[in-house]
Amino acid sequence: MDASTEGSLETESNNTEVDDDKSNSDCQSMPGYMSSVLRRQYLQEMVKALPAPVQNRLVALKNLQLEHLEIEAEFYEEVYKLEKKYQLKYQPLFDKRTEIVKGTVDPPKEEPKWKEPEDVAMEGEIDQFRDALKEVKAIPQDAKGIPGFWLTVFRNTAILSEMIQTHDEPALRKLLDIVVTYDEDHSYTLEFHFDKNEYFSNTVLTKQYFLKSTVDPEDPFAFEGPEIYKCTGCTINWEKKMNLTVKTIRKKQKHKERGAVRTIVKQVPTDSFFNFFNPPAAPTEKEEIDDDSNQILATDFEIGHFLRARVIPKAVLYYTGDIVDDEDDEDEEEDYDENEDDEYDSDEAPKAQKKPQNKKQSPNDCPNQ
Question: What is the pLDDT of residues 224-233, one digit of tens each?
Answer without folding.
Answer: 888 898 999 9
